[in-house]
Amino acid sequence: MASGVNYGGTPTLLFDLAYVAWIASELVGAYALPALRRGSAREAFRSDQGSRTVILIGILVSLTAVFEFARFGFATFPLYAVYLGVGLAFLGIGVRQWAIAVLGRYFSTSVRVLEDHRVVRTGPYRLVRHPSYTGVLLTIVGIGIAGGSWEGLLLLLGVSALVFGYRIRVEERLLEARLGDEYRAYERETKRILPYLV
Questions:
Q1: How confident is the model at residue 171, as a pLDDT?
Q2: Could you say which architecture CATH assigns to the domain 42-189?
Q3: Which of the pair, 43 or 84, is modelled with greater confidence?
Q4: Distance between CA atoms of 198 and 185, rounded to whole angstroms?
Q5: Which of 73, 75, 81, 97 lies at 20 to 30 Å from 188 by C-alpha?
Q6: pLDDT-based confidence at 167, cuts 50/70/90?
Q7: Regarding predicted confidence, which is higher, 111 or 6?
Q8: Using CA atoms, how far apart are residues 175 and 90, in angstroms rounded to an integer?
Q9: For the chain, what is the radius of gyration of the CA atoms?
């Protein structure tokens, strides 16, 4: 098993499939393909402020805890929660990859602006400013639910809120500074993560 979560049979297989699909989608869809799309595009400014590292460490530590909770018998959610969680995880993977594809060569796992950077308002960016984070948060919530414990789910939610909240603040400060009024107008027209809500 990829995760250490053991429900037995189909639920475990589905959980592991969702987990492996998420990792693969990040390696290919968030790292490899965007690097190819950027080609010779020149970076004008970078200001990551350690946010990528904060996200990686926070998510890895909290996911490890979720898997350990499940392995040591904390998993108390009913079995159908696995199916709900796996469904949410795949939905999140789809939303994130859609957002990355629409952003095209402007997408990066670090916070930076290209020389010809512009505000993208198509696809999921019509509804929210950070749909790739919406997608990854759906995936994380799905994994947390499928992990089967309130402890794991709450830990994932708490850590995710902190690390992605930090990342969004860093990113928006850079975009406001480099794209100016165009980005500030976009901020007034859209929510950060959830349409019409947050």
A1: 95
A2: Up-down Bundle (1.20)
A3: 84
A4: 17
A5: 97
A6: very high
A7: 111
A8: 29
A9: 18
In whole angstroms, give the CA distance from residue 153 to residue 46: 33
Q: How confident is the model at residue 46 (pLDDT cuts 50, 70, 90)?
A: confident
Could you please report the per-residue DSSP string of the chain? --S-----HHHHHHHHHHHHHHHHHIIIIIIIHHHHHHTTPPEEEE--TTHHHHHHHHHHHHHHHHHHHHHTT---S-THHHHHHHHHHHHHHHHHHHHHHHHGGG--SS-EEETT-----SGGGGTBS-HHHHHHHHHHHHHHHHHT-HHHHHHHHHHHHHHHHHHHHHHHHHHHHHHTHHHHHHHHHSBSSSTTT-
Q: How far apart, in whole angstroms, are the C-alpha atoms of residue 145 and residue 154?
A: 10
Query: Which one, of 127, 111, 198, lies nearest residue 161 by Cα?
Result: 198
pLDDT of residue 6: 58
- Kindly list the domain boundaries of the chain, sorted by start residue: 42-189
Q: What is the pLDDT of residues 168-183, one digit of tens each?
A: 999 999 999 999 999 9
